[in-house]
Each structure stands twice: as C-alpha cells, then as structure tokens.
TrEMBL record:
It comes from Mesorhizobium zhangyense. PANTHER family: ALDEHYDE OXIDOREDUCTASE MOLYBDENUM COFACTOR ASSEMBLY PROTEIN, MOLYBDENUM COFACTOR INSERTION CHAPERONE PAOD. InterPro entries: MoCofactor_Util/Proc, XdhC_Rossmann_dom. It comes from the Bacteria. This is XdhC/CoxF family protein. Residues 77-218 form the XdhC Rossmann domain.
Amino acid sequence: MDPLHLKKLNAERRARRAAILVTDLGDGRDRMVREGDTVAGELGEAIVKAFRSGNSGSVVAEGRNFFLNVHLPQPRLVVIGAVHISQALAPMAQIAGYPLEIIDPRTAFATDDRFPDVTLFAEWPEDVLKAHPLDGYTALAALTHDPKIDDFALKAALDADCFYIGALGSRKTHAKRVERLMAMGAPSEGIEKIHAPIGLDIGSASPGEIAVAVLAEVIRAFRSRGTARLPKGQAA
C-alpha cells in the first residue's frame, strides 16, 4: 500500500468518513476513493455497491481485477428521550450493531436503573451534542414528543446530514414541527428527509413493536444510502 494513501485513509477514518482503498490486482497500484467521489463505469458501480454493503472483496470491471477494501464508520443511533420505546430499542440496536446513546434532560426518566449498559446523558441535547456532534453516519430518533427537547436535536441532525432522522408523532403534530423547524432556519427540502411518523408502517402499537419498526427503518436507511428515499412500507 502506498504510504500516502494509508495516511489519507487513516485521516478519513478518524473523521468518521467512509473510504475504499481500490487496488488493481494486475499491477498492484492502489488509490483511495471517498464516499461521494465520482468513479465511472463498471468499477464505479461496484464501488457504490460496496459503500452500501460495507463488504470488502474482489470485483471484475472493464476486464480488470480489483480488490475493494471498504472502511465504513460504525453507524450509531442517538435517541432523544428516555421513554418506553427507548427501553425496547436499546437492546435491539446493540444486537443489530448500532451502538445507542440516549439523551434526555428529565432525570426522573434518564436513570441507569431503566437503561442499564446504555450510554445515557441526563442533559439537554444542546449541551450533549456540542461535545458529541452528530455526523453522516449517525441516525437520530426523536421520541420525547416535547418540542423543547426534540426540536434542537432535529435541527442539529438536519445540519449534520444524518443518514436517518425520525420523529415520534402524528402527521398533525409533525406539521406543527415543520413550522417550528423552518422558523429555526431549516430548509424545506431538508425537513422532507424526516421520517414522521417514525418507523416502518407495520401497524405497530406497543412500545416494543414501535421499536422494531424504528430499528428496521434505520437499517433500511443505512443500507440504501445514496438512493432515493423509499415510500413507507416499501422494501429496499
């Protein structure tokens, strides 16, 4: 590996940005491709698929053999609200490989007893997200149903271009939320990325079922990065 490419790759990994080291198996030359870089032809198509799947491996493109060494940041799930849905969601997310953090300034809810073995911040999102900023490999789920807690986090997620943003509440509730976010300076095309009501439409009713729907929607959003958003309930 070219030492310069290794240095660039390590810099991307420290910044939580995705990159692929592309090696031509015929002549041994390699190059680094960042997510979003344009690569033409069959190789470009293979690179896009590799970024979505996160799987390294060899491919044949334009009659040549390449090895794609994929480096994706660990996706994380930030949940606003230490609520019943969050209690069900936490163990599911860990099993699925999405480390979960919960933020809720309401100290009666954000307790270690209710959320054992979970990264928990009993503080306002404004304070937590300054020290632990969101990024493109973060999913954010706003579950408090309280604008004083949810709205700042949602605006921060839009600004950070999180790969998934979801919010609890009815369509009527979300319409009022949209007005508040636009007043905060969020563009309408960005607000359209918010999944509200949150979760895949599977008829969920209980906190556990809603948690399943939310996690499924998060996973679908992660695995379909770079594609048009699918209608609720439609498989990728």
